[in-house]
Amino acid sequence: MILLREIHNTVSTCPIEPPLPPLDQWIPLTSIEQMAKTDYDVLIIGSGAGGGAALWRLCEQWGDNGKRIGMIEAGDLQLPTHAFNLPTLNEQRAIAYWERIAERPGERWPDYPGAKMVKALGGRTLLWYLFAPRFDPSAFRSWPITYKDLMPYYQIAESVMNITSNYAKGSSLQEMLLERLLMGGFPEATDMRMATDLIGTKYGQVHSNVFFSSLIFLAYALNIRPFDLAVNTRAIQVLTEKGKAAGVKVMTTDKKMVTLKAKTIIVSASTWETPRLLLNSNIPNEAIGRYLVHHPEIVANGNLNRDQFPEVLGVATIAVPGSSERTYHLIGFSDFFYHYTKKPLLKETRIVTKVYGIVEPRFDNHVSLDPLKRDANGVPLLNIQFSYSDKDRALHREMYTSLLAFSTTMGLSLEGPPLMSPTGYDNHECGTCRMGDNPATSVTNRFGQVHGITGLYIADNSVVNLTSPANPTLTTIALAMRTADYIIAQMK
Questions:
Q1: Ramachandran category for residue 47: left, alpha or beta (phi over 0 → left; psi -120 to 50 → alpha)
Q2: What residue ranges define each of the domains in the chain, with the CATH number in brackets?
Q3: pLDDT (tens digit per residue) in 291-304
Q4: What's the pTM?
Q5: Residue 169 contacts residue 357 (beta carbons within 8 Å)
Q6: What single string gives the DSSP state of each residue in 208-232?
């Protein structure tokens, strides 16, 4: 029998590995002072849907090829994942958290009282409702690109985001409501497409982030190659030299002004902040800030008699997509996610129904810099001028009638008449830097490059011509990936 002391005498002790440098946060950050020493090949402003997608595509295509990529975010680290992935945040608490981190510029904008902004790593993808349809091919008739041009990028985006129509498929509630709609005059009714990862854990590959956010783009990118990331860093001015992008002036929360150098700049700051930045940078283009559009939204809440359904009810997420003949998009959904909540058997089940329409793009609907008021960083505040046209109001009446028919066909007992949400409440604002072939009526070309400025690109909702009533997030992401590919081609 070998004695323990004999083992100790014959077996060497492993040396203790030196500790790794501590990671201060759940994602590696770079100081703005360090970033100021780097001449970036690409600098991305904003980390939401468009910025995250552009970053991932650049990293995925380039690999670790030595190109220097940086990203700055005006907000802080608020959540490490989509709010719905956190077991402590049910829907009510997630909405309450949204209220805490959201800014409400609509309180200053009488024409757009429902507007909200989120400055945080991941942007509004931390709290969006995951509905991710494509635009109908007919929506591209007035675009500088076609549905066919964007289709491969839709496919790439849907793969990375795990977009599926299976979220509620097979649920008793889903199947019975769909049957009622299909038999009752809504033949296009279908399972809603959602950015939800429903793949189970297998061979140790964990799929814990069911609900998608832009942070997943950042995670994929980080595992391909390093990039520099600074939060709490606000872009103040885009710098150009002889018609070319040269860098960005930024300010930190402690009012430190720094200049970052970059050959290529992708602005993904939002429909509000992107035109604000370009206007404050004196970028010469009359269309900047113009053609503001969104999705007017009418909402109805209703209840279903629980006795009409099997005991195991499930959830419902239903869509009636818009088309060339119907420029509005109907959705109906129940309380569609929960973590550690016991679901009591109630006599009634609540269903929310909504209809989204489009807005006629008009030059007069615009954002502009306030000549007198400035924020804490000295940047002029935004003013909004917006009104609906007679054509818009006619569509609202059609939307109202259709939502009533949609709700009653499902058998809902409405709690009250459908109500129109405050302008901007939909969070789908677009168009203030829209793409087009004519520099007189658009800000970027068909690849997202700002007219007349080499190396300056836009990749967010502001470039989207919102000619579809579908949620714009998937389209914004597909466009951002296409822009990234164009940048890669230009830098070869």
A1: alpha
A2: 32-490 (3.50.50.60)
A3: 999 999 999 999 99
A4: 0.96
A5: no
A6: ---B--HHHHHHHHHTTS--EEESS
